[in-house]
Specification:
Largest sheet of chain B: 2 strands, antiparallel
Number of helices of chain B: 3
Shape of chain B: flat
Structural class of chain B: mainly alpha
Helix content of chain A: 25-40%
CATH superfamily of the largest domain in chain A: Amidase signature (AS) domain
CATH architecture of the largest domain in chain A: Alpha-Beta Complex
Helix content of chain B: 25-40%
Order of helices and strands of chain A: HHEHEHEHEHEEHEHEHHHHEHHEEH
CATH architecture of one domain in chain B: Orthogonal Bundle
Strand order of the largest sheet of chain A: 1-3-2-4-6-5-10-11-9-7-8
Number of domains of chain A: 2
Strand content of chain A: 5-15%
Oligomer: heterodimer
Order of helices and strands of chain B: HHHEE
Radius of gyration of chain A: 21 Å
CATH topology of the largest domain in chain A: Amidase signature (AS) enzymes
Chain lengths: ~475, ~90
């Protein structure tokens, strides 16, 4: 068996038993990446030299001691590029570590590579990367999902033991579903965003991609907690998320939101997710129908709030302090306009325009303020549902991976790919996607994701539920042929 | 919504666009705006807006000096710099 096909927990055991050294693990990974990444293009940058130096001094007794971790190109790693897959940040080198990276290092992990993404995390397919698309390991004519498509693809293709991504409207859970790995979006405030390049600050969260639910728990253990550098992080206790795995889930109540099982969903996804829910019933969980009445408004609310916040956050890219600067501008205003024209891709421009418009004088109340009020109603839907159930179970994505290029010029259709994931960000709750089966298309198996949504800061229960399903089904063990 | 004008909004956003982009975004974003019009159907009377989801207000820290970038680190990614300062195009005549 190849070393790289092991899960994070398994490679940790091998390291601790001294069957293998951190440097050997890193070298095996390097070889695997050299062999398969030309077809996947999940990485945008790698630094094995610096990683090897860290591997030589790694302390394998630490929680993630000696384990290489891939990092999405939107999170700052000292001395490494952090371009957010944008032309405007080409050549930029991070002058500091994001808090999550500091925490991973403190746990013994080794950052070694940057993963591809939609530019500034705006997209659902990773086609909006200014560098290259990433290709789905299960069928390289298809998208891996997005925006963290690189992170999902490298974990699925055994090119990483785990990766960090960010999730603003589904950017961890949707690519995890489409690539067949586990993807966790922690609750808003659970994980510090200091050092994450901001897209929509009231929605952004950092979380892990892993091969198993246990690995998600280990990663969450390492990155959670209050950070005084991110004033939205909460001072809530950080339990050992691995401790409750394997406990009985009998009697836990799972809510099936009736609004998520209506038209517009691929019948193979609908059928597979319903089978997964029946499986939960057989494990002793009680299935209860719940209603989230404002579901139909989530995408609209999201594309107002997220673009509004993005238009403000991306104002910092002005060609003054870092990144690209257009040549030959006669004055500062022209310098801003040209720099941003040359530096941003089409989707980022679209969202800046939309966000600027909904915040502009005369439209603020009609769009932004109204969206924030409907957001309150969406949050209330979840609060009411969680009075009745311990977690919600539904599809992650309405369909399996689609073909590259299929909707790159139809923004509205692309936005609807996030229909089941967006509400969790609006409500600040936690969510995870795990593999629950496959759809067959053109002789290829395409992964389908099951989404579990939990109350704010209830990640332990969410992981316990996800683990119970995973351990009693075969899906997570299946690998793409590469 | 009928007033949506990409050219004007782009100016507000300090973002130059080509004529081709203006035409394309005008049509694509008009579709997105038509889609979000649906929010008008929702009764939001008496509903408080949500700015973000945590019950957090006024997070303060002590007003103390912290270890942070020196000038050299802050300027390391600057497209143009001189004498420890960022250099930009002319602002005033």
């Amino acid at each position: 068996m190849e070393l790289t096909s092991l899960s994070l927990s398994e490679v940790r055991e091998e390291l601790r038993a001294k069957n293998v050294s951190p440097l050997e693990v890193l070298q095996a990974l390097e070889e695997r990446i050299a062999r398969v990444d030309p077809a996947i293009r999940g990485y945008v940058a790698r630094d094995f030299e610096s990683a090897a130096a860290q591997a030589k001094n790694a302390d394998v007794s630490l929680p993630l001691g000696g384990i290489p971790i891939a990092i999405k190109d939107v999170i700052n790693v000292l001395g490494e590029p952090c371009a957010c897959a944008s032309k405007i940040l080409r050549g930029y080198r991070s002058p500091y570590d994001a808090t999550v990276v500091k925490k991973l290092r403190a746990a013994g992990a080794i950052p070694y590579g940057r993963t591809n993404m939609d530019e500034f995390a705006m997209g659902s397919s990773t086609e909006n990367s200014s560098i290259s698309p990433t290709y789905n390991p299960w069928d390289t004519s298809r998208i891996p999902g997005g925006s963290s498509g690189g992170s999902a693809a490298v974990v699925a293709a055994d090119e990483a033991f785990a990766a960090l991504g960010s999730d603003t409207g589904g950017s961890i859970r949707q690519p995890a579903a489409l690539c067949g790995c586990a993807g966790l979006k922690p609750s808003y405030g659970r994980v510090s965003r200091f050092g994450l390049v901001a897209f929509a600050s009231s929605l952004d969260q950092i979380g892990p991609f892993t091969k198993t639910v246990r690995d998600s728990a280990l990663m969450l253990n390492a990155i959670s907690g209050l950070d005084t550098q991110d004033s939205t992080s909460l001072d809530e206790p950080v339990p050992d998320y691995a401790a409750t795995l394997g406990q009985d889930i009998k009697g836990l109540r799972l809510g099936m939101p009736k609004e998520y099982f209506v038209g517009g969903i691929d019948p193979r996804v609908d059928e597979t997710v319903r089978a997964a829910i029946r499986h939960y019933e057989s494990l002793g969980a009680e299935i209860v129908e719940v209603s989230l009445p404002h579901t139909g408004h989530a995408v609209g609310v999201y594309y107002i709030i997220a673009t509004a916040e993005a238009s403000a956050n991306l104002a910092r890219f002005d060609g003054v302090r870092y990144g690209h600067r257009a040549a030959g501008a006669a004055n500062l205003l022209e310098q801003y306009g040209k720099t941003r024209e040359e530096g941003f891709g089409a989707e980022v421009k679209r969202r800046i325009i939309l966000g600027t418009y909904v915040l502009s004088s005369g439209y603020y109340d009609a769009y932004y303020l109204r969206a924030q009020k409907v957001r309150t109603l969406i949050r209330r839907d979840f609060t009411t549902a969680f009075d009745k159930v311990d977690a919600i179970v539904c599809p992650t994505s309405p369909e399996p991976a689609f073909k590259i290029g299929e909707r790159s010029d139809d923004p509205l259709r692309m936005y609807l790919a996030d229909i089941f994931t967006i509400a969790a960000n609006l409500a600040g709750i936690c969510g995870i996607s795990i593999p629950c089966g496959f759809a067959q298309a053109d002789g290829k198996a395409l992964p389908i994701g099951l989404q579990l949504l939990g109350k704010p800061f209830d990640e332990a229960r969410l992981l316990k539920l996800a683990h119970a399903y995973e351990q009693s089904t075969p899906w997570h063990k299946q690998k793409p042929v590469l | 919504m009928s007033d949506f004008d990409v050219r004007y909004t782009a100016r507000l956003a300090r973002l130059n666009l080509s004529e081709e982009e203006i035409a394309k975004f005008q049509s694509q974003l008009s579709q997105v705006l038509a889609f979000v019009e649906k929010l008008r159907e929702v009764d939001v009377t008496g509903v408080e807006p949500t700015a973000h989801t945590n019950p957090l207000y006024n997070v303060f820290r002590e007003d103390r000096e912290r270890d942070w970038f020196d000038a050299k680190e802050a300027l390391a990614n600057a497209p143009r710099q001189a004498n420890g300062l960022f250099v930009v195009a002319k602002v005033v005549e």
